[in-house]
Amino acid sequence: MAERYRLEILDHREVAPGHWEMLLPRVGGLRDAEPGQFVSVLCRTGESWDPLLRRPFSIYRAEEDAFSFLYRVAGRGTRQLSRARAGETLDLVGPLGRGFWYRDLVPGSRVALVGGGVGVPPLFFLSQRLLEAGAVPEIYAGFASARQAVALDRWQRLGLAPQVATDDGTLGYRGVVTELLERRLAGEGLQRIYACGPRPMLREVARLAGAWGIPCQVAMEEWMACGAGVCLSCVIKVEDDASPGGRWMRVCREGPVFDGAKVVWNRA
Amino acid sequence: MHDAAGNAVDLSVQLGGLTLKNPVLVASGTFGYGREFAGFFDLGLLGGVMVKGISLEPWEGNPLPRMVETPAGMLNAIGLQNPGVEHYLKHDLPFLRSYDTRIIVNVIGRTVEEYARVVARIEAEDGADAYELNISCPNVKEGGIAFGSDPAMAAQVVAAVRAETERPVIPKLSPNVTSVAAVAAACREAGADAVSLVNTFLAMAIDVDAERPILANGFGGLSGPAIRPIAVRMVWEVYREVDLPIIGMGGIMTARDALEFILAGASAVAVGTANFVNPYAAVEVLRGIEDAVRRRGPLAEMIGRAHRR
Prior knowledge:
The complex is a heterodimer.
Chain A: E1 3-8, E2 11-16, E3 19-25, E4 38-41, E5 55-58, E6 61-62, E7 66-72, H1 76-81, E8 89-96, E9 110-116, H2 121-132, E10 136-143, H3 152-157, E11 163-166, E12 173-174, H4 177-185, E13 190-196, H5 199-212, E14 216-219, E15 235-240, E16 243-250, E17 257-259
Parallel strand pairs in A: 9-10, 9-13, 10-11, 11-12, 13-14
Antiparallel strand pairs in A: 1-8, 2-3, 3-7, 4-5, 4-8, 6-7, 14-17, 15-16
Helix pairs in contact in A: 4-5
Chain B: E1 13-15, E2 18-20, E3 24-26, E4 48-50, E5 67-70, E6 73-76, H1 85-97, E7 102-107, H2 112-124, E8 130-134, H3 145-148, H4 151-162, E9 169-172, H5 180-189, E10 195-197, E11 201-204, E12 206-207, E13 212-213, E14 219-223, H6 228-241, E15 246-249, H7 255-264, E16 268-271, H8 274-277, H9 281-296, H10 299-302
Parallel strand pairs in B: 3-4, 3-16, 4-7, 7-8, 8-9, 10-15, 15-16
Antiparallel strand pairs in B: 1-2, 5-6, 6-14, 11-14, 12-13
Helix pairs in contact in B: 2-4, 4-5, 5-6, 6-7, 7-9
């Protein structure tokens, strides 16, 4: 159950240029957070009402007593947030949304985790849970360049070796991460794909997954006002049995994780 | 509600035939049909819930982007997406009825007749304690603001609904007019019991890099603390010029904001955009008003008191 928390910032550091990791105590209902779920964070400080709205961030790491999210400074909300210091208080609501589903996987299942940019870190939390469930995660991570590559060291510490693509070729494969996925699909044994990243990447992952007949879950992003399911700002078209042409679903409530085969991508 | 000595603090208000146990409502479109907030607090704490606008048939709403943040506020152009009156009666009404709070149904329509038919349908199921008529949504081409920007049109909608129900009828007025008092006066003549002041302000934001409007709809409605001083002024004007109870709303974030509206003449207040930012906002506003009544005396005497100082 989502609640509002006012948490003391344990650590807050710039892990790559313009990329910050916020570490917070994992208390109350936050202990039940699942991969793909998000927290909704007030980015302003003190008495100001500006910027007014919370910002949604998916969970990156979930340790015993602490969790973190990783964000890129992209606008005035994240710019203000980046000025927060350890020891200060952060106001957040969470955990929110419906995360990745994985409990149905049988031990030994091989799954691909495909991320792009700041969509990569939330897959780390997922990989933690997948390992606990006995699944075998393969990580595919795409970044603009080596300077923006985040979260890779965390996987290496777990003994996993992410396959990396960068647009400029400064790290790993030169090209987009979906090309790495496409090569992998030519091989055998992949049972599921999980993806988190920019909309065009998700769309291509869903297309490839469909072509190869592999189930695929995508974590969608959309501008949110409330994060609680009432404002209807963050809706996307998703098909279900009753609505073959798709009907509005709330990224913050029915999502952010959807079946990639059901998302109506032509609106994206 | 009790004071420090354990004595009851009377927060009840009369709103043209509608009795609220306290003056704190939640504004239509910012609270859904209550379900999403029931996990945060007991909805029975509220004086009432103004549910999201309901139409005869389901409405699809507008394309995206539907929302953008602006300085100390936000623009929305949701386009009144809603599942229609039958869905409300079947799925949302029983849930809301399980709480000890007033249900004020916000009604939308493309024609005068549609407003009346929605109300008639809800009347048949005993599905509301009062009706708020949305004649002021800036985001739909038909209906909505077209009715609220002209006193005669507004009066037509009120009269048509008046003919269908004995329950309180509360038009929600647009601030996008030259004289909101003139519209309020016309609504009063047509049989309105109270007015909601105000809906969002017609506004716009442009993406300077893409060189085009940010919202798919082009225009949207501005809400949040950015609009509060204008909304307070409009409540002040209508209180001075029209003898009709007022539900004040527009950027209320705290109890002190709510007290501004009450002192300007509002008998009740609605917390709106603040619900998006702080899920407990309405409850915190209620606690603050309770505290103010304890310190300053009866709520009824506080209504419009700034006019008399």
